[in-house]
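batch_manifest entry 22 of 60
target: Helix-turn-helix domain-containing protein
source organism: Nocardioides koreensis
requested by: lab member K.T.
priority: normal
notes from requester: please return tokens only, no post-processing; we will run our own comparison against the previous entry in this batch. if the run fails, retry once and flag.
--- input ---
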Amino acid sequence: MSGTPRFLTLADVAEVLNTSSAQVYALVRRGDLPAIKIGGRGQWRVESAQLEEFIQRMYAETRTFVDEHPYVEAEPRPE
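--- output ---
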């Protein structure tokens, strides 16, 4: 087996994405980031492969956004 665990906690995912566990929970509950509930307490786990797919999808969506909304430098103010 590799050194990377197959499943990550929401806290682990939050650390990878440099965001809060609450934000990751919202991504999971909205269905943006696939996850499973395990155990009697229903703890969430995100598969490492799903996290990588999510990251790649976000890169693609960001590229599309940037292409559709190009950054325009502000005109210099006349003196």
